[in-house]
Amino acid sequence: MYTVVLIEVNCSICIQMEIKIFTKVDLEAGVLPAMEHSALIEGEYVLHRDPKEGPALFSRKPQGLPLSAHYYWHGRKHREDGPAYIRFREDGSISDETYWRHGVLHRNPYEGPAWVSRSSRVDPSILTIERYYYHGKPCRDPADGPCYINRDPGSGRILEQYYTTAEEAFVLLRASPRRRRSPAKLAACPS
Length: 191
Known about the structure:
With 191 residues, the chain is mainly beta. The chain is built from two helices and 18 strands.
């Protein structure tokens, strides 16, 4: 048996907004299987919570282990210091994570992929999907490797891989404050 608890809070961070927190509680087990933070923004309730405070949407399995965590800011997936979406396995370990900024897949490719999936049941450490996105576009310096990688879940063998050209990577990464290579070296990379 579940009960839904609604908590309304008024928040005055920059603008006055109405915040609603929906919490679903399993009264028999004492487990909190779902929690949702929403805000009334421009006349519409959207998922919203300061990512530093935690996810806007969080769900648990009946046993209490986490199922998924979603970080939203003003209705868009967003988190600057970690993945904005995390999905967990039955044992509580992470199976999928994606990095989003203001509603688009984004992570500096020198920090790692924006989308990672560990869907192998044979070996959970195998990364079956790696995708590098920068401001919503596939991007990785070809000298560092492919921007899309698909692996066999059983063996970890690469099944598919795709590269961006050095010119595409240079255009997308030139404004990055954390790039490792100089523009001259990046432009000289083979396509």
